[in-house]
Amino acid sequence: MRNVLVTGGAGFIGSNFVRYLLKAEPDARVFNLDALTYAGSLENLKDLPDASRHTFIQGDICDAGLIGKLFQEHQIDSVVHFAAESHVDRSILGPAPFIQTNIVGTFTLLEAARQAWGADGSTRGMRFHHVSTDEVFGSLDASDSAFTESTPYEPRSPYSASKASSDHLVRAYFHTYGLPVTITNCSNNYGPYQYPEKLIPLMILNALRGKPLPVYGDGKQIRDWLFVEDHCEAIYLVLKNGRLGETYNIGGGNQPYNIDLVNETCSILDELKPSTTSYSELIAHVTDRPGHDRRYAMDITKIRNELGWTPRHDIESGLRATVQWYLAHMDWVEVIMKQEGFSDWLDKNYARRGT
Ligand code: NAD
Ligand code: TYD
Known about the structure:
By secondary structure, this protein is of the alpha/beta class. Helix content is 43%, strand content 14%. The protein is globular and about 65 Å long. Nicotinamide-adenine-dinucleotide (NAD) binds next to helix 1, helix 4 and strand 5.
């Protein structure tokens, strides 16, 4: 791993991973390609450790000319592919960019890697790592077993369908062309630098502004919450030691109901930033998301047995660290909330949503 192309490295998980990689690999150079959509920001890349080994390139993963040039000029030997449209609610209101970035963009990167590395990339230590989601597996009922790597795909939103499609393309490039790929499917991340359209940061920031905390439907949906730094460590281990062509499931092992998670977030805020009444009084049940997946849960036996990875954070420690991070970074919050696309989004998704 000498010249690593990270796509989407100005987003939430990508920027955390860039930090992680610069520390973990003292000889690697990181080329960070990001289009800076509403979800990406250079604010996420301030104070990088050893920033001289990091080069930011603003550009689109669908731009074949640009990607081909990057592979050639920088002798890229590893790709860690995060760039995506990532928000389910946005995919419901406007699916087109999801098809373009998540499917066409992934295809464009795969083609560029195939052209640059030729047929013997695997013997020369090249690696294309694709970051995907548990949502490709669909929705579990209360009594179903957790998703394993062999659970059939059954995506149910335009977002998860586009990610499923990209996973299939990545596997096809392994089987057809021998491209040295690995894939990880992970559960819901949370932690520093998460864009405040997602559940946990939205709840923290709405609470601090005294705004309603919009819980979709009955709030009894379940996600498998994973602290972002644990995710970064897992991806790094797969990059170093994962077997080519293999998929690894990554999950946090924390599976509360949404409503309990929101209440827990409010309790931490009550303790760290007390107000006259509990923040939980701001909770408002609103009209459910169409096709809302009920439950996700990840079986992480494979990555634990093969690579020795387990998450370091439980939900209590991870949520507390997250709330503390947001409270200590209100300057970051101010800038992000003023950027184009945030207040428009709140208006579009929530203003006319019924209760
Ligand atoms: P994010 O929305 O915070 O960041 C995505 C980044 O990709 C942004 O910086 C954006 O500018 C960039 N981007 C979007 N379109 C682009 C394009 N066409 N060309 C170049 N850059 C582009 O997303 P995230 O939460 O950091 O997710 C990263 C990856 O992890 C995604 O592939 C997502 O599907 C996957 N994932 C996320 C979660 C989660 O809970 N956040 C869970 C499972 C999997
Ligand atoms: P989200 O963070 O959007 O992630 P995903 O849809 O990829 O799982 O949502 C997490 C859960 O929280 C999901 O069940 C939807 C729910 N949710 C709300 O109840 N209210 C909200 O305002 C948001 C954004 C999400």
